[in-house]
């Protein structure tokens, strides 16, 4: 129900009337608040996060665009941060029993959705939270001291993954016309949490300005050199792997635990439903780099490349 407006306060309704508006590719209204597109309910939740979310300095925030590698990073961060706790009893590891989304809750999608104000005192720190908000929006909450990990994925695979996600979610194959409408909307940046390039840029710049606070990771790099990237993650989170851990294969164990193959074959992820009511299995598909080649026409791929070149070409960010 996040596309709707049934959880919006009068104050937010007034705000919405003053915002630029457009429609998503399915015809639902989107509103641009400070450079980012939201559905009314999402905007309400984001405003509530900004007003009420007060993490502890030791808490960790994972930020991403939908389909950018959120599930993988949720599991990796959880596994890295809590590795000591389950060292002697790996068979009781929470990642074997719960979906990563239930271990690392979303702020605006779960905790602050539906006008809820959660009591964070019940969580022990470090708690890991997740968000799809862009960095400026996140900074309006009191999160400055928290370590923030961002995972970025190339626009073509992110888009194609989003297409499959929609199909799996609705258990139907949407037609080619819808694929093209979704593509056009993506190119215009008119989609929830979009434009893509503004989102990526906010965290890219943030990571350049404050390296100790914002870690910019790339999905493709984690696929390419998983050990290096997981060690980089642990260092950033101030829990680097010791020499003994490295020698005993702790990095590999974490990679194996969090691998798509392992997670997607667990009973909880095959047949379970996450707390936000989504079938757990829809978060796992191929997990490959370059699957866009099977779905985008050469012209579509070229258009995406040109957009990225135009929007991010002089940012220093290389895809
Ligand atoms: P594909 O649709 O390309 O396969 P998100 O977690 O942000 O919703 O992104 C989902 C994408 O990440 C999907 O990509 C999914 O298959 C992939 N993914 C999920 N879990 C993963 C894991 N443990 N390792 C690698 N990729 C994973």
Number of domains: 1
Q: What is the level 1 CATH name?
A: Alpha Beta
What CATH calls the topology is Rossmann fold
Rg over alpha carbons: 19 Å
How many strands, which pairing sense, and closed or not: the largest β-sheet? Answer: 4 strands, parallel
Q: What is the assembly state of the chains in this entry?
A: single chain
Overall pLDDT metric: 96
How far apart the termini lie comes to: 34 Å
Can you offer a commentary on this structure?
With 319 residues, the chain is α/β, with parallel strands linked by helices. It has a single domain (10-312), classed as P-loop containing nucleotide triphosphate hydrolases (Rossmann fold, 3-Layer(aba) Sandwich). The protein has helices at 10-17, 40-52, 70-81, 94-97, 100-103, 107-111, 135-139, 155-170, 176-188, 196-209, 219-224, 226-236, 243-247, 250-257, 260-264, 267-271, 298-312, and strands spanning 21-23, 29-33, 36-38, 60-64, 128-131, 147-152, 214-218. It is globular and about 55 Å long. The protein starts with 9 loop residues before the first helix and ends in a 7-residue tail after the last helix. The mean pLDDT is 96. The structure holds adenosine-3'-5'-diphosphate. Adenosine-3'-5'-diphosphate binds next to helix 3, helix 8 and helix 15.
């Amino acid at each position: 129900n996040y596309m709707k407006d049934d959880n919006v306060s009068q104050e937010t309704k007034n705000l919405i009337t003053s915002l630029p508006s457009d429609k998503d590719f399915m015809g639902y209204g989107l509103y641009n608040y400070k450079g980012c597109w939201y559905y009314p309910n999402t905007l309400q939740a984001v405003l509530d996060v900004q007003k009420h979310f007060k993490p502890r300095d030791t808490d960790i925030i994972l930020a991403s665009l939908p389909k950018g590698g959120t599930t993988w990073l949720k599991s990796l961060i959880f596994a890295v941060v809590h590795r000591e706790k389950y060292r002697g009893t790996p068979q009781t590891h929470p990642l074997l029993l719960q979906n990563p989304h239930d271990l690392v809750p979303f702020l605006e999608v779960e905790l602050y959705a539906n006008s809820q104000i959660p009591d964070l005192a019940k969580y022990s720190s470090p708690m890991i939270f997740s968000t799809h908000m862009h960095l400026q929006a996140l900074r309006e909450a009191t999160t400055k001291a928290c370590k923030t990990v961002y995972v970025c994925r190339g626009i073509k695979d992110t888009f194609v993954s989003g297409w499959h996600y929609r199909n799996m979610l609705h258990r139907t194959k949407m037609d080619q016309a819808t694929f093209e409408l979704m593509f056009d909307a993506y190119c215009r940046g008119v989609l929830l949490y979009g434009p893509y390039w503004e989102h990526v840029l906010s965290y890219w710049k943030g990571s350049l300005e404050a390296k100790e606070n914002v870690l910019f990771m790339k999905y493709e790099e984690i696929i390419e050199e998983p050990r290096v990237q997981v060690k980089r993650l642990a260092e950033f989170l101030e829990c680097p792997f010791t020499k003994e851990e490295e020698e005993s294969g702790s990095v590999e164990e974490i990679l194996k635990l969090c691998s798509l193959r392992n997670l997607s074959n667990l009973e909880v992820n095959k047949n379970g439903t996450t707390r936000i009511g989504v079938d757990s299995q829809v978060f796992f598909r191929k997990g490959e780099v370059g699957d866009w080649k099977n779905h985008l026409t050469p012209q579509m791929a070229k258009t995406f490349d040109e957009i990225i070149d135009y929007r991010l070409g002089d940012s220093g960010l290389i895809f």
